[in-house]
Structure formats: C-alpha cells, structure tokens
Automatic annotation (TrEMBL):
This is ATPase. It comes from Clostridium polyendosporum.
C-alpha cells in the first residue's frame, strides 16, 4: 500500500472518529461537528488525489517525448540518406546502387521509427491501464469504507431511535398511570 493510500485511509478514519466522538443531539440521532475541522480533513483528502492524476499526466508527456524523439531520429536518418543519395548521383557510376541503398536505409529508418512509436504507445497504454486499475481499486476501497461507515451509522441511528422511542413510551405509560 502506498503512502498516499495510507494517508487517505488515515484521514477517512480520522473523519469517522470525529463523527463518532461528536456531541449527539438527543432523540434526533444527529451530531454536532466542527465544520472547519471537517472541511480541513476533506481538503487534505482532495489534495492527495491529484498526485495520481499528475502521474497519469507524466506518462502522457513521456509518451509524447518518446514519439517526438522517434520522429526526429527518422527525419535525421532521412536527411542523411538524401544527402548521401545526392553525393552518389554526382558520381554517375553508382547512381543505381545509391538508389537501392537509399531505399533500404529509408525503409530501415521507417521500420525503426514505427517500432519505436509502437513500443512507446504500448508502454504508455500499459502504464495508463495499470494506473486506471490502481485508481479503480482505490475508489472501490474508499467506497467500501464509506459504505461500511454509513451502515454502522445507520445501525447506531436505528438503535438510538428505538431506545428513544422505548423511553418515550415508558414515560407516556408512567404519565397515564399517574391519573
């Protein structure tokens, strides 16, 4: 588990502690909480999440850089080949051989550039897929934690309401018996 995951989980647990330890409003099952403290914890959680998005942006930038380098290399090889062809054309004896060699070099450069582009794309796709899975896992973990907390809260609320209702019924019985 990464440090970011641990920090987010700790912040969510702290938020849960705040809710559980806050002053309760009788009968309603509601609690009184410090708005500023809650908002600070939520802001901290939000501030941790952009790191995952920055990582995805870095992968995209790296992909563009690799593709740019492959294109530059292709252009350099192409330019070098063209210069070589021009020189050989000047020497009329090897014009035919130069044409063949130039085509081989261009084809080789194109194959290399294509292989580099495909490799960069595959790498970027793999990293993005992995990042997407990590984000999905983190989202599911957070949702499970929130669901668990909400279910616990609902059970506690139901129990408190049942206790309050029972107390009220007992009080009503006592009042009626006083007549």
């Amino acid at each position: 588990m990464s440090k970011i995951e641990v920090n987010i989980i700790e912040l969510l647990e702290y938020l849960q502690d705040i809710v559980e330890s806050s002053a309760k409003v009788p009968i309603t099952g509601k609690v009184v909480m410090d708005k500023k403290e809650i908002l600070e914890v939520v802001d901290q959680i939000i501030n941790y999440l952009p790191d995952e998005f920055k990582k995805a942006q870095w992968v995209m930038n790296e992909r563009e850089r690799i593709l740019g380098e492959a294109q530059k290399e292709y252009e350099a090889v192409k330019k070098q080949t063209m210069e070589m062809i021009k020189k050989q054309v000047e020497n009329h004896d090897i014009v035919k051989e130069a044409g063949i060699k130039a085509q081989e070099i261009i084809a080789s450069a194109q194959r290399e550039a294509k292989a580099i582009r495909l490799g960069a794309r595959d790498y970027a796709d793999e990293v993005l897929c992995q990042l997407e899975k990590e984000i999905d896992n983190k989202t599911n973990e957070c949702l499970k934690l929130i669901k668990t907390d909400v279910e616990k809260f609902a059970v506690e609320l139901s129990e408190n309401l049942n206790k309050a209702s029972a107390t009220i019924r007992e009080n009503v019985k006592e009042l009626r018996s006083m007549k």
